[in-house]
Amino acid sequence: MVSQSTKYDHLFKNVIPNTIEGIRIFGKNDNYTKPQDYDNVLNLENRIWADLFQNLEFLLDQYSSREYLLGLRSLPIPNNMFPDFEAISPLIENSTGWTLISVAGFLDEELFFDINKKRQFPVTDIIRQSPRFAEKYAGIDIKNDEGYTPEPDIFHDIQGHIPFLMNKKYADFMWEIGSLGDEILKDERGLGPDLVAHNLKRLQNFAWWTYEFGLIKNTGDTDSFRRVANDMDYEICGAGIISSLDEVTNVVKCAKGESSRSKFLPYNIEEMIMTCFDYSNIQDRYYVISSMDSLYESFRANQRLFWFEG
Fold first, then answer.
1. Structural domain contains residue 10
2. How many CB atoms lie within 10 A of CB 25?
3. pLDDT of residue 137
């Protein structure tokens, strides 16, 4: 696992103790692959999936981005039972060259970016609130409720992330992030473990505020793909929001002035990479991009920001 050096943490803003204590983290030397046992999914697990999906289905139809909606509609992701990885992966591969890799759980940074560089996206078939999840963390006190668990589960991985990978521009963007993360970790520039850790945190901040918890300005153009028109100023393009009913509800309420819990900030890559995030609570801010193309262009034009040399 990458060095946990905090030497340069004083440069960050919004520093929060992001604990994932108790979560099993797999590295490249572990037996991290775990094929989906689709034929033995429990009825209870299917019901948990159905509850999670159906509670969000109409909200996401109204408020998620065009890329998400079109991707979701082109994949066999059911709203009432576990998705089958083997049915989904070939369709993504045919569309954008990515495939799914079924894994045992949370992957460390080195393994995650190495897998992404190969145009593979890690997914797990464990789901929150299930007996298998409880068994995996027996005796360990971690949050495990309908709204959130610190270990990405099948609902976050498949329902949140995978529809976006049907879009070629988005898939290329994700590959570029994975490739940059892999390059930072290999440290062929000889910056040393302290700067590697710092630059990796910059990249993780960027990923968090964009593809995990990002928003995009609502121009109304996506409404032709919705059942009901989007009545707020934003579309949701972050998988971490999409897979959380609490987070979606928070965005909508704040956008409509019904809550002041979180603020909406204009996209600013220099600010975002230096702003830390909180794993365990509703986000206190969301950064808003003007378009997906502008996000891709900004990332490519600002690679230097991820190579701080002290």
1. no
2. 15
3. 87
Domain span at 271: 21-306
Q: pLDDT digits over 259-296, tens only? A: 999 999 999 999 999 999 887 789 999 999 999 999 99
What angle is formed at CA 279 by the lines to CA 75 and CA 16, rounded to 5 degrees? 150
- What pLDDT is recorded for position 2? 62
Domain presence at residue 16: no
3-class secondary structure, 219 = coil
- What is the distance in angstroms between the CA of the first residue and the CA of the last residue of the chain? 22
Domain-located, residue 9: no
For residue 129, tell me if it sits in a domain: yes
Number of folded domains that form the chain: 1
Please tell me the predicted confidence (pLDDT) of residue 21.
65
Q: What is the pLDDT of residue 127?
A: 95
Q: What is the CATH number of the domain that holds 53?
A: 1.10.800.10
The pTM is what?
0.95
CA distance 83 to 290: 32
Q: What is the pLDDT of residue 143?
A: 75
CB-count exposure of residue 65 (10 Å: 0-12, 13-18, 19+): buried
Instruction: Based on DSSP, count helices (H) and strands (E) in the chain, helices before strands.
Output: 12, 8
CA–chain centroid gap for 162, Å, is 10
Q: In a 3-state reduction of DSSP, which class is residue 152?
A: coil
The stretches in the chain having pLDDT less than 50 are 1
Distance from C-alpha of 138 to C-alpha of 224, rounded to nearest angstrom: 47
Helices marked H in 187-244: 193-207, 239-242
CB 79 within 8 A of CB 62: no
Distance, in Å, from the CA atom of 10 to the CA atom of 6, rounded to the nearest integer, reads: 8
Sign of CA dihedral 283, 183, 6, 274: negative
Query: Hey, is 192 helix, strand or coil?
Result: coil
